[in-house]
Amino acid sequence: MAPSALTPTTEDYSYEAIISKDISLGGVVDHGVSKAKELIGHALKSRVETIDQNTCEAGEEDAFFVADLGEVYRQHLRWKKNLARVKPHYAVKCNPDPQVLRLLNELGCGYDCASKAEIDQILEMGVDPSRVIYAQPCKTKSHLRHAALKGVKQMTFDNIDELYKIKQISPDAELFLRIHTDDSGSLVRLSQKYGASLDTTAELLELAKKLGLNVVGVAFHIGSGATDPKAFLKACQDARFVIDQAAVYGFEIHTVDVGGGFTGDKTFEPFSAVLAAALEVYIPPHIRVIGEPGRYYVGTAFTIACSVIARRTVTDATLGTTSYMLYLNDGVYGNFSSIMYDHQHPVPMVLKAGNDIKYDVRRSGYDTPSMIEYSIWGPTCDGLDHINSSVMFPEILDVGDWLYFEDMGAYTKASATRFNGFTNSHEVIYICSEPGASALLGF
Ligand SMILES: Cc1ncc(COP(=O)(O)O)c(C=O)c1O
């Protein structure tokens, strides 16, 4: 049945109608921000006050994270409140932090894994393989063998060659046909690499049938860091088209996987409202719905602190100005990989200047007439290792001072390298601003 033949509904589910509704932005869950700030500030302060760059061992002054597991917990509650029908399968690739994974396990989430190592990390926590989806349409044969051996059956595919591979290695897999989406409004586009277009799905279903494979789901991803919730309407409509098409080939689709793309900021409520409405219109109620959120869960939960390892004074004789280049001990080859791979613009803030802790002061009237301009650089010898080209602070910062950056949980440490011999393993100090999460984790 084509989407146009769906049962009419009296509700107006057009995009315009949905976003014109009184959607609560952020007031949905008490964000416990002040408690979190207090705990994060305390953790940052306690750590940096123990370090003296003049006497410390090599690496003692390394960048470190403070992770608020309470924030992950709040995001989960917010998800449940807004997308009750969608069971989250956390995208491990986004940040495979062991405590985050453990908390999400306690909360009953599933997991989206894309490789053998991710699958092993999840199964080693005692998670049942049925809670894992191997959401990688182009799998490495040996990883697929491993997944089959470990009992991971749910997996995505989007092309003919992959079907032959699956037939050979994992013939009793539970297959999700990943379809192409319009991800042009997203930060990181995925559909130029993955997803079958609707004019190829019949051929894929026909081959799957011929090979005796079992197609049970339809999957899509509207692109990571999506900005246009309308993409969900079209994707759900297309998913319904494939559900009906699959029935023609004798497949009973029982799950739709709506992927990721959500951000943890105030866009989440309007995004989820559009998705929930689209599911209601296009996806029959007996069909299970799962999602693969990554960034949404962890983006805001991690703060990183970096120390100033070097400074260069830049004087402009013509203008009569002095500015500074600050070199930090972390950069785009490390945890700021998100600048390159995830198009992020991390915002530097002063943590420690001389003997003064400055955490969170920027929020309360930080601007003064005599601001000093800084550019911020990473520690490697590559000119690309550049974090921020112009930021103003009132303090004169020097070697041994510290900066911090919020919202550093998504696609940061997961893609850090050891380029130039710098470490990609940084300490994480865990705090928990929600008693519910503390109880679950035994903190
Ligand atoms: C298949 C798949 N699922 C889920 C995700 C997570 O996306 P996000 O972090 O936007 O939620 C990604 C990100 O690349 C992905 O490729």
Automatic annotation (TrEMBL):
Keyword entries, A-Z: Cytoplasm, Decarboxylase, Lyase, Polyamine biosynthesis, Pyridoxal phosphate
A cellular component annotation (GO) from this entry: cytoplasm
EC category: lyase
Keyword Cytoplasm in record: yes
Active-site residue numbers: C381
GO biological process, one term: putrescine biosynthetic process from arginine, via ornithine
Protein name, entry field: Ornithine decarboxylase
Pathway the protein contributes to: Amine and polyamine biosynthesis; putrescine biosynthesis via L-ornithine pathway; putrescine from L-ornithine: step 1/1
Cofactor: pyridoxal 5'-phosphate
